[in-house]
Structures are given as structure tokens and as C-alpha cells.
Amino acid sequence: MKLTPGQKSFLRFLIVGVFNTAIGYAVFLVGLRWLGLAPAVANTLGYAVALGFAYVLNKTFVFDNATLSAKSLRRFLVAFAVAFGINQIVLHLGLAAGARPELVQIAAMVCYTVIFYVANRVFVYRQ
Fold it and tell me: CA 62 to CA 27: how far, in whole Å?
């Protein structure tokens, strides 16, 4: 089965996402368990650490756009802010419903991933 360009970029996005998620979730757990941070603060720290990796890998590997620019960086940060904001809302709602932070963060990350991919594809790295 031959993949379309959109399917290829989504597959690459998922690969980069797994890498970034592992980094972000590890930092989240360290912040939550070892540093005693509140879940929202630990989540913010995890995403902040992984964000630099995400920009470079999405730009060069996922969307085949090797030219780093201020415009794409600004758009990337806007897309991130929207996806991360929704992630934080899902995290907050899950915690308010009594869910464990470790589990609700997984649901929040799924929402973030879908929103961030669509925003990158149609807004940041339009093809």
C-alpha cells in the first residue's frame, strides 16, 4: 500500500510525537513525583522541554521544510499555544472529575497531538 504525502507526513509526525511525548512525559513525571510540582506546572515544564525538539524535527523531518525562519517559528508557537491550551483544559477537567493525573494526561496528550498536527499542516507548514 502506497502512502499519500499527507499520510507520510502524519506518520512522521507521529514518530516525532512519540519521541517528544516520551521526553515531555518523563519531565512531567519527574516534576510531579520528585519535585512535588502541581500537575499543571509539571505538564508545562514537560512541554517546554520538548518544544525545541518538536520545532526542529517537525520543520525538517515531518514537513520537509529545512529553512528555519522567524515566521514559521511564530506560527509554530501559536499552534503550540492553542494545542497546549486545549491540553491544559482537558487536564484540568479530568482532575476536577477525580481522575489520576498520570492517566488524564494521556487523554490530554491525544487531544494535543491531533490539534497540533492539523495546525502545523494547515497553518505553520502549508504545503
Answer: 24
CA separation for the pair 38, 101 (Å, rounded): 10
How big is the chain, counted in residues?
127
Distance of CA 54 to the CA centre of its chain: 8
Quickly list DSSP for 53-108.
Answer: HHHHHIIIIIS------HHHHHHHHHHHHHHHHHHHHHHHHHHHTT--HHHHHHHH
Cβ–Cβ under 8 Å, residues 95 and 39: yes
Tell me the pTM.
0.73
CA 11 – CA 18 distance, rounded (Å): 11
What whole-number distance in Å separates Cα of residue 84 and Cα of residue 123? 16
Tens-digit pLDDT profile for the chain (127 aa)? 788 888 888 899 889 988 988 999 899 999 999 999 999 899 889 988 998 888 888 888 888 776 767 888 899 999 999 998 999 999 999 999 999 988 998 899 889 888 998 998 899 887 5
